[in-house]
């Protein structure tokens, strides 16, 4: 008599990011792109404030004119980045300052990057945005306006003192400084 097939136990995702995705990393989105190059650096922290050493951050953005890439050819700006966090949860991405884009009901959105975060223990990725703290258009951004004023700072990359082309943005997965995540 044949044995009945059994299902395997449920498991969470990972940890596999460092092993399997290094060849797929895109840490220099700005390479060959027209526009002002900037670096975004930061770290990912869990709910206890401990660094997350095996997360992956993917970004999608418009180019300097505010246009998203569709069918980009090799060597053209794709608008896509992917970086893994290091042992201290740190990451760094070089890109260009995106232009403003059209948003809901034709409203103009401030320059931003859309971010997806993958990591161990998450069955569904987290989605958030990076805005630039020194961008005047933030005050009129329709998506940023949806976020409670007391929490908007979690979406703002802040210029690094002494390094005007470098911004710092950290991700807090839980706790009092929890980054704003969007349901999509």
Helices and strands, with pairings:
Layout: H1 17-20, E1 37-45, E2 56-61, E3 80-84, E4 90-96, E5 101-102, E6 108-109, E7 112-118, E8 126-132, E9 156-160, E10 163-168, E11 171-172
Parallel strand pairs: 1-10, 1-11, 8-9
Antiparallel strand pairs: 1-4, 2-3, 2-7, 5-6, 7-8, 9-10
What do these coordinates show?
- By secondary structure, the chain is mainly β.
- The chain has a single domain, classed as Aromatic compound dioxygenase (Protocatechuate 3,4-Dioxygenase, subunit A).
- The chain has one helix at residues 17-20; strands at residues 37-45, 56-61, 80-84, 90-96, 101-102, 108-109, 112-118, 126-132, 156-160, 163-168, 171-172.
- Strands 1, 2, 3, 4, 7, 8, 9, 10 and 11 form a nine-stranded mixed beta sheet that branches. Strands 5-6 form a two-stranded antiparallel ribbon.
- The protein starts with 16 loop residues before the first helix and ends in a 12-residue tail after the last strand.
Q: Helical amount among residues, as a percent range?
A: under 10%
Discrete helix count: 1
Which stretches of 5+ consecutive residues score pLDDT under 50?
Answer: 7-17
> How would you characterize the largest beta sheet?
9 strands, mixed
Level-1 CATH class name: Mainly Beta
Number of E strands: 11
Structural class assignment:
mainly beta
